[in-house]
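Re: the request from the purification team.
They wanted to know what the chain is likely to look like in 3D before they choose a buffer screen. I agreed to run a prediction and write the result into the notebook, where they can find it.
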Amino acid sequence: MSTKYQRTHEKIIRAGMQLLFADDFDKVSVPMICKEAGISRPTFYSHFKCREQMVAEYYGASFFLDQEKTRWITSAPDSWTSIIRMQLLFIRHTCNPEQSALISRSLSWQLTGQQPETGSDYHDQRQKMLFQFIKEAQQEGSVRNLSDPHYLCRSIFMLQTGNLFLWCEDNASFDQFTNFFWNLEAILYVNEDNRGLWKSEIGFMPDFRQEDYS
């Protein structure tokens, strides 16, 4: 069960992103976000150092994992397919041409090397899911890299960030799917029979409803 702090943390991010999706970053101030979220400025700064940190957390955490999408991930026939589906959703969440300016700001914040302290459990949720899928895929034999799943999770998160940098650098025209999954298969040393499976999963990916920030 989430705490009051966590619920407020999420409310701030959702209110802030609603405003940022509708207007330029420089036109959306902290007071505007506070008004939209129904909080005070001290409350905002007790959760975030700045707007950039808020944006970075939105794109770097598990906001793409709502109940409907989680069901699709966990309904996969095996753990390797669950890993694929989770990555497909994350790529769709981040590699959005209409939000490329915001995503670039998110990456710039990450380059500062500052790890935001957060009251949200979204980062842990994402890592716990991926850790479990990797562990099961190792047992099933589809993932033949038997390194500690914690290290493999970290490698995948680094791959996601690198893929996103290349996508932004190429003005959102970079083939993020092919590049990411080719490297993912190499990192995890995926069984030959399971390579390229991501291509068919893209074809059957549900047309999930857009996130509601009202």
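For the purification team: The radius of gyration is 18 Å.
Please add any questions underneath this entry.
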